[in-house]
Design a protein that fits this description.
Helix 6 packs across helix 7. This protein has a domain of about 110 residues. The chain is elongated and about 75 Å long. With about 325 residues, it is mainly alpha-helical. It has eleven helices and two strands, in the order H-H-H-H-E-E-H-H-H-H-H-H-H. The longest helix has about 40 residues. A two-stranded antiparallel ribbon has the order 1-2.
Amino acid sequence: MDLGFAEYTATNPGNTVNMFFITAALMLGTAGLPHVIVRFFTVPKVKDARLSAGYALLFIAILYTTAPAVAAFARTNLLTTVDNAEYSEVPQWFSNWENTGLIAFNDKNADGKIQYVGDAEKNELTIDRDIIVLANPEIAKLPAWVIALVVAGGLAAALSTAAGLLLVISTSISHDLLKKYIKPHISERNELRAARISIAVAVVGAGLAGLNPPGFVAQVVALAFGLAASSFFPAIILGIFDKRMNKQGAISGMVIGLLFTTAYIIYFKPQLGGSGLPENYWFGISPEGIGTLGALINFVIAMVVSRLTPPPPEDVQKMVESIRYPRG
């Protein structure tokens, strides 16, 4: 604790439950992310799609299991490099990041040394957590090409994710919603125009959200994954494994699960204008983990509504059966 390493699950009685819900939201959200699912449409056979999904899960597992180790190494690098060091003798990387405003030194005891400790009253070093991944190779004195690879990987991941999400947003609005339900006779030209407008609105909305994010990167990712877990994941699972699942059940579950999760996040996130306090969390669950509860609500609502409404057509049930047990 003196070094700044806080325990994850022992700080309060509800934190263990909260960590479980956050972890589950990350896993369920990953399975329900639309820009991940659409990647499987690029393969010719169901067998290839399953193989592709298997590789994706393997690399995701490697990422999630090694991230804590990278975080520990980054903190250790900082401790061994700058803690108790003379401010006038700090390495060049410190000055580089200090110029960006993402690292700040406040000499509280005026001794000219940097005290980087867990006690907020004594700590003199402030570091923006969003820079750790980029700064860590430089702190560890790795070659410039390693830093370039990290930056290139981050940009590639960001662009790939953005492209996939924009594709899903545009096709969902222009084709699935507009073409199939609102204006069935819309021309391809107007459908394309609607897709472009949808992309433009999504880009502007994402830009505005990026200017005032509701948390640092890891928190924002957890919130996004929670929204995916509470909306898409139950619909995908029930659509594959429950032949009784119909349109009414899937839509009802997705809408209620999404509304519940969104309302909870907004209420307990002051950056979004919410007035909720952490001590009022339901069962000690933070907004980053509430997507798991939203997914459970989605499952219950979808199954209840599907049993109270007509079953899906026979051809749809056969199609689902063929997806579960592909032939050829």
